From TrEMBL:
Pathway: Amino-acid biosynthesis; L-arginine biosynthesis; L-arginine from L-ornithine and carbamoyl phosphate: step 1/3. Keywords: Amino-acid biosynthesis, Arginine biosynthesis, Transferase. Residues 1-22 are annotated as: Disordered. GO terms for cellular component: mitochondrion. It is an enzyme of class 2 (transferase). This is ornithine carbamoyltransferase.
Amino acid sequence: MSRLAHSVVSPSPMGSSSHKVHTSALSTLPRDLITLGDYSAEQIGALVESAADFKRKVKSEGQAFHPDEPLKGKTIAMLFSKRSTRTRVASETSIAYLGGHAMFLGKEDIQLGVNESLRDSAQVISSMVDGIFARVGAHEEITTLAKYSSVPVVNALCDENHPTQILADLLTIWEVFEKQGGSLFDSVKGLNVAWIGDSNNIVYEMLAAMPKCGMNMSVCTPSKYPIPEGIRQRAQLDAQTAQASVTYCHDPVAAVKGADIIVTDTWVSMGQEAEKAQKMIDFDGYQVSMDLAAKGGANKDWIFMHCLPRKAEEVTDEVFYSDRSVVFQEAENRKWTILAAFNAIFSK
């Protein structure tokens, strides 16, 4: 494959002059990051470019800490109702790099919405910290926290959205498909993304961001797991504006036709373990494999993405550990996009 070298390097167009182009877009970000659906294409691009810039400074130039320490003297509360690996490591190291203090609060540490309402918790916690990074369950939990918090809130995950993950996906795609000297939009516009999997927060967030950036999406879910109509309508409007396309189907072979990027995720999300037996039946034929890509006619340089953790029924080892897979590059990029979001939002 011609693009394999990109799996270990960050994009080259992230020199200081390119980064400065989007300084104004970063300064106009909303106070909170709940979903990329609330952000313009320019704001999304600015965050991804900022993430690439941080990655270059740390990995290529050896910058151990931000020289300006934008979070010096600040405490960021990390409210994690759900356990994590990538999100916790990425966020704590990002806060340290920016000179701040990370306060991890798991579900056993505080009474988030248990003996105290979310509204009360938001008001109390935000009165003592400078920012909140929250990994919760229901979408209403993150919106309630944001509504009643006196400090910015960044969504680490909820059941409808996962913005920092999709920012990391965009950074990864840019690194792989970078056009020489091109911006994020120059490089990703017109790429074909095939989603093969569940109707969940990952594909919802992809639909909130990727069509807006000019990427074409083919979304394949079993008929029992449709994409909500509101999400479809918004994605269609974004696609029309950016001259992109969004299509939906239930046949994985048809979905990967012409795909540059094939993406899947867990079929059984955290808290859905009781549904596993039925989902194994419903998702029969949805495993991503070399055979599926060949039968469907994916583009010759197609790559595979998965936000992890991965289970064998979702993708074969042949794909997951192949040169086509960029899953570990994608996982690392969670740090750089979280770092960019924290720097832009919590340092104001």
